[in-house]
Amino acid sequence: MDLSHKSLAHDFFSLADKEAIRQAVARAESLSSGEIATMVVSESDRYREAEALGALLLSGFVGVVVAVLSHHVTIWTYIPVVVLLYFPVLFFLRRFPHLKLSFVGPRRLAEAVSERALVAFYQQGLYRTRMETGVLIFISLLERKVWIVGDRGIDAKIPPGYWKTLAERLAQGLRDGHGAQAVCEVVEACGSELQRHFPRREDDRNELSDDIIIS
């Protein structure tokens, strides 16, 4: 499957899926003073260092094979092959970005997703809710990872481990091919937990759009 690139997030959920997620958010928010936002991105980082490393290693491997098969194992055989192959291989890795993840360590992946989620939390204005009860459910498709970010008011009452459990549950749903259903279930669970700590107030109003954010 070609995961490139810009259209991935836009095409991942159908219109029916997006509407189901919107309704799930609206129902969850009707129970509490929390503001839940869902967001999906194609990738959290370009991982350019992985592209460069992958292109170098793969072209180098092919260069060795060509040199051995041609029975001319010299530096003058090897270097031209590597130079000729480097940019085609680099283009190939950019065309099929899931392949370059083989050259990215798990820690780097986790950091990229968490940093992108934090940036999105502030870009989407979730830190500006009246009671500091904004929650972002962030999905990064290339990495198949999920990060859930809660504002200060939420973090004071709900332990981070709860969000981690929900994030893992959603990530597993994505890997199993049940992304929309998993999002709706996690949004529902999020709403139930928010209801326990932040019951809906009479003057509560919807401060953020319920539509899933595509980037």
Overview of the structural elements:
This protein is of the alpha/beta class. It is 57% helix and 10% strand. It has helices at residues 6-12, 15-29, 48-69, 75-95, 106-123, 152-155, 160-175, 179-197; strands at residues 35-41, 134-140, 145-150, 213-214. The chain has a 4-stranded mixed β-sheet, with helices on both faces. Strand 2 (134-140) and strand 3 (145-150) form a beta hairpin. Helix 3 (48-69) packs across helix 4 (75-95) and helix 7 packs antiparallel against helix 8. The longest helix has 22 residues, at 48-69.
Strand order of the largest sheet: 3-2-1-4
Helix/strand order, N-terminal first = HHEHHHEEHHHE
What fraction strand? 5-15%
Q: What count of helical segments does DSSP give?
A: 8
Structural class by secondary-structure content: alpha/beta
Overall 3D shape: elongated
How can the largest sheet be summarized? 4 strands, mixed
Q: Ends: how far apart?
A: 20 Å
- Estimate percent helicity: 55-70%
Unreliable stretches, pLDDT < 50, 5 or more residues? 1-6
Count of individual beta strands:
4
Mean pLDDT: 89
Radius of gyration: 22 Å
What is this entry, summarized?
This protein is 57% helix and 10% strand.
